[in-house]
Amino acid sequence: MEYTEKFKEKYTEKAKKYNLPAFEEINSDLFLNDFLNDRKYVPENILGFVRVKLVELLGSWINFLHSFIMPNPQSAILMKDYEATNEDDKKKIIKMIQDIMISQRETILIGLEKDEKKDAEFLKKYYKLWNDIKPKLAEITQRNIDNWKKGEPEEVAEKLGR
Fold first, then answer.
1. Which pLDDT score is estimated for 87?
2. pLDDT at residue number 155
3. pLDDT over threshold 80, residue 17
4. Above 90 in pLDDT, residue 111?
């Protein structure tokens, strides 16, 4: 717990300075406690560290989302997901991918510049994006789950090429 407390103290100073989300809020999404206590250190560049963790979270959705708009045709599983995705969902997915990819590219530039204020601006912008897309991700994921529940196992097996 000692690493988390040290980090929280440093982050809270920066959060006040730049009007960032509270530590508890970002920790609930980024699991900073686990990482800090596992590694047993507090990074020097607090905001840069949080930026990287946020980018990892956003980036973790890219392949899942991409498979709904351009699946590997050799994967019967991905093709089943793709075929069940309506055009409205595909438009939402494309927009989310676009926003996430912009975050992935912007973080590279910010990492090169080593500017705390730019880290803070990035965190505000993309933490808001994360909170905006969470309900959309949940909606699309639930529809995907519902699609997998349809049909008897024999029908699903047939669609999967068995």
1. 94
2. 67
3. yes
4. yes
Please count the other Cβ atoms lying within 10 Å of the Cβ belonging to residue 108: 10
Residue with tokens 């699903």: 156
Give the chain's domain count: 1
Closest CA to 123 of 146, 139, 135, 106: 106
Q: What whole-number distance in Å separates Cα of residue 151 and Cα of residue 134?
A: 28
Domain range enclosing 117: 2-159
Concatenating the DSSP letter of every residue in 27-58 gives HHHH-HHHHHHHHT---S-HHHHHHHHHHHHH
Residue 77: both structure tokens together: 């599983």
For residues 61 and 137, the answer to whether their CB atoms sit within 8 Å is yes
Answer for the pair 80, 151: CB distance below 8 angstroms, yes or no: no
Query: What is the gyration radius of the CA atoms in the chain, in angstroms?
Result: 19
